[in-house]
Design goal:
The protein is an alpha/beta fold. It is about 45% helix and about 10% strand. Helix 19 links the parallel strand 9 and strand 10. The chain is globular.
Length: about 525
């Protein structure tokens, strides 16, 4: 450690001299922005501080990186730290990157270490792998470890695999999931064996992570372990097992484990893992899955489901879409209010859920309201109550005499996408700076329906929202299927990204597509 501190000290001295030389190469406007930053970053207005950090995205070099690390990543507001992480990831100057991996990686503030690691990970440069590996070996904070493992996964690095197995027994499930994720990203079958035992872990999130990694590692020896687990899997884990086996084998069978077991018994002696993975999503009718509940044609076998429905003012707009017949073919055009289409489909799916399913419904605009405080089990009473609640849903319109704004100063009737997404992961107290890596998701599978770009809430920028979803997903392992109603531009891109990050499906409804 003394040698490391000496290295950091000497690096700081060197970088200080570089800062002095660097200022002369900046444009007058950039120099003015750096001066303004030191003044306005002290503002009480979170929006102003966020904007100041955003300006530094466009200024490369040591001084810009130093200000982002010292001021942006230490800010109390999540919005400022989120923008700071993104701004830091834009740096290309070698000295700026050296500052991040020395001073940033060794900061006493865990928010700074996490932000710097996430920024370095976004650069996807193999030259930074050694610095991340060194950080992992001395790191104790779960959030930083999670960020480090996911950063290495971006480059498919194998450098930490020599000691990664010790993290499979870590006390924090988020760290275990991130370590497994990194192992899977190597796509090297020799790393599959230590993961087999994790299928018996007590946490569903770890089991899901293990199945996803085994699907990436594609080892023939993994198949018996997955089949054994498949035999007793329930709900969403059945789909996770099937997806894993499809990736390894390129075979396309149903959710019935007996079918897979019988196939394996016939071929296991001569069978070899195919060289490439083929995307062959199973056809529902061909494989007897017609009884699987579906929401806007997205099928799920989960027994813990939540539906998140946008009720912002724009959901009152009329949309045009094609109706499909029983064979799934588009027949005729229909027009309806967006909210009416959403309610119709939601009532249908709720009525057809499996009787063992626990479910909840959440409506959001600027504010968020839920059908129940916690998921309820399917039953005649709960379904009847849910249907009545859904039927009363209407896009927000300002009641006479009520305030148009929330206590945070946000206008009602807007689209608080980030707030609704945070609700999925168990954030219900409105505190946005308290994430420590521990989450209590409301379900393992979510259907998220929206018709607009994020327009209010703590975060509205696409990259900042997706950055946080990546943080949460490492721990929560919630599949989020997204349904976009006549969405284009940023909103459409965000919905597609959320589905991609969480392993969900993205569906578009309406004549715009």
């Amino acid at each position: 450690m003394p040698a490391l501190r000496a290295l950091i000290f000497s690096t700081c001295l060197l970088l200080s001299s570089i800062c002095a030389q660097e200022s002369s190469s900046l444009t007058a406007q950039q120099q003015e922005q750096l001066k303004d930053f030191s003044k306005y970053i002290k503002s009480k207005d979170v929006g102003e501080r966020t904007a100041q950090v955003g300006f530094l995205e466009h200024i490369d070099g040591v001084e810009s990186a130093r200000l982002i690390i010292e001021k942006g990543l230490t800010d109390k507001a999540l919005r400022v730290r989120a923008r700071a992480t993104w701004a830091l990831a834009t740096k290309e100057d070698p000295q700026a990157i050296a500052l991040i991996t020395t001073v940033g990686f060794n900061s006493k503030n865990p928010h700074v270490r996490e932000g710097c690691v996430r920024a370095i990970g976004r650069m996807e440069d193999e030259k930074n792998e050694d610095a991340i590996v060194a950080l992992i070996q001395d790191e104790k904070k779960p959030l930083v470890l999670i960020a480090a493992f996911r950063a290495l996964a971006r480059t498919h690095s194998k450098k930490a695999m020599a000691f990664v197995e010790q993290y499979y027994t870590h006390k924090k499930q988020g760290v275990i999931c991130a370590a497994i994720y990194m192992a899977g990203a190597t796509e090297d079958p020799k790393f599959a064996k230590p993961i087999w035992g994790l299928l018996q872990h007590s946490k569903r999130e770890v089991q899901t992570s293990a199945l996803q990694a085994l699907g990436q590692l594609r080892s023939k020896e993994s198949i018996p372990f997955v089949l054994d687990f498949f035999s007793s899997a329930q709900g969403r884990l059945q789909t996770d097992c099937r997806d894993c086996l499809m990736k390894i084998t390129n075979r396309q069978f149903s959710h019935n484990p007996t079918t897979w077991i019988n196939w394996w018994e016939r071929v296991k002696r001569r069978w070899k893992v195919p060289d490439e993975v083929i995307d062959n999503s199973a056809d529902a009718k061909k494989y007897g899955l017609d009884d699987t509940p579906s929401f806007h044609e997205i099928k799920t076998r989960s027994k813990h489901i939540s539906f998140i429905v946008d009720v912002s003012a724009s959901m009152a707009n009329v949309m045009r879409y094609k109706v499909k017949n029983r064979k799934g073919r588009s027949q005729k055009w229909r027009t309806a209010r967006r909210i009416d289409l959403a309610k119709e489909e939601l009532i249908r799916i709720v009525k057809t859920l499996d009787k063992k399913t626990y479910f909840n419904i959440v409506a959001f605009e600027t504010r968020i309201k839920a059908f129940k405080k916690s998921p309820v089990r399917w039953g005649p009473g709960s379904i009847a109550e849910a249907v009545k609640w859904i039927e009363k849903l209407e896009p927000y319109s300002s009641p006479t005499g009520s305030s148009e704004y929330t206590k945070e100063g946000w206008r009602r009737g807007e689209t608080n996408t980030f707030g609704a997404l945070r609700y999925i992961y168990g954030f219900k107290d409105g505190k946005v700076s308290t994430f420590t890596g521990k989450l209590k998701p409301i379900a393992d599978t979510v259907f998220f329906l929206s018709d607009g770009d994020p327009s209010t809430g703590y975060l509205v920028a696409l990259e900042e929202i997706t950055d946080q979803i990546e943080r949460y997903h490492s721990n929560g392992q919630v599949v989020i299927h997204t349904i976009a109603y006549e969405l284009n531009g940023v909103g459409r891109q965000l919905m597609a990204e959320i589905a991609r990050i969480t392993g969900g499906k993205f569906v578009e409804i309406g004549s715009a597509r």
